[in-house]
Please model this.
Amino acid sequence: MSNLIQSVRGMNDCLPDAADTWQGFETIVRDWLRRYGYREMRTPILEHTGLFKRAIGEVTDIVEKEMYTFVDELNGESLALRPEGTASSVRAVIQHNLLYDGGKRLWYSGPMFRHERPQKGRYRQFHQVGVEALGFAGPDIDAELIVMCADLWRTLGIAPTLQLNTLGDLESRHRHRAKLVAYFEAHQDTLDEDSKRRLHTNPLRILDSKNPAMQALNDAAPKLTDELDDAALAHFDALQALLRTNGIAFELNPRLVRGLDYYNRTVFEWVTDQLGAQGTVCAGGRYDGLIEQLGGKPAPAAGFAMGIERLLALMEVAGTPLAKPVPDAYLVHAGDAAQAFAWQVARALREAGLASVLHCGGGSFKSQMKKADASGARYAVIIGDDEAAAQQVTLKPLRGTAEQTRVEVARAIEILKNTTL
Model:
């Protein structure tokens, strides 16, 4: 029997080639967020379990079925691996009083954890980029969040479509909830087991059922839009007008409710039909009551989160190229004096800001040149005992048709900095 230990199911290694792709994506995302004025915040992966129960809702699939929780044996506290990023972000904002001088535009990135059945696009450790705009009440910030997503999709060469809805405010949801419960109670024989379980705890989630047998019943259910008050309707109308002004196409989806209890008013999802069952690549909305719910002073808030794995898969389908990092130079050396000088040259190149790989492990000149070519480097920097004695290097382009040349190290640095192959 093999003693080989493998990774935990649904938690994947990111090997160097894939990591290069991730870094290319992350570089684009960081620049995009910088251009919109959002600043990064990093929160712990572990939080108190109560944070997510209060924020997400105890009667949700995430808390009931998917969250990784355990008791810390040292002090008896119940802890959880974060299943999403908004609750942690809001906890940090409250704890450190970040809203003392007005609204904040924040973002985070990192791993999240949910115990789901692993499949393409859905993993037990997955990664998200999340954006949170805290302290902004108007529909303009809702529109900014959606417009900035559309901006990113253009940069990434993908084209998910936008679904939009409003959940109104608490009072309208209470009225709608009472009507939903009465409606579904009258059709209990038609409800599936999940819907029966949610009927008196979270009936709004029944509308989000993916069970085909539930679709006709849900289509005829009472509509939340019939219960909206004037303020919520005005907010939603203003948001739609701003989206049209900015050329953002959208589809109104009255059954879009999101799976987290903290949402109110605007909810949205960017979806695609190119990834099979995992069609949502980005989702978010407004959560005006969450800051107060978690113990802070009342403040409006909105945000979204996007799944990195799903976006990368969508980019692969679209054929979007991402530049991978390659060395500027690969240093080949033969001879004792050459090896000593190669170390000096490598340091000089790196101090000049050039990515330089120094060959290690010995080998013939021919085998070293094969390594240089395989590295993807732009140039081989060749050093033999003759070059070492003259304090020079031979530059050999590994791409294109230019001739190799022997130069001083300072001149080699100039060439490497100023030449694109």
